[in-house]
Specification:
It contains five helices and no strands. By secondary structure, the protein is mainly alpha-helical. It has one domain: 23S rRNA-intervening sequence (de novo design (two linked rop proteins), Up-down Bundle).
Amino acid sequence: MSTVKQFEELEVWKTSCQLTVLVYKLTGQEAFSKDFGLKDQLCRAAVSVMSNIAEGFESQTQAQFVRYLGFAKASAGEARSQLYIALDIGYLSKEQFQQAYELADKAIRQIYRFMAYLKTHPESRRISDDKVGYSLE
């Protein structure tokens, strides 16, 4: 695995970003946009996936990173569950549901594999702030 310097380079973060953008587009549709509770909860869950990946990447230890990835995985599961509600209520077509579901599921699988990799390769911890200069003056 090549050294990753920024969380934006992670494929799992890119997938979660795609999920978030899609969720915002879908929840902006007429009927869905008026259901403030479900719309807000689904958007928050999607944003939480990508945010926890970023926050974990910037954390101090690999164990913390794995912990945040666990939070991200749980949020992706939450979003996937809420998509069923949106489908059943009629806010999403089957095609829209399938597209969002597949992205959420892809994120979950990527996170799972990434967590497994990090747990078995403790030496793989990267330093993301190696370009930052520090002065004690």
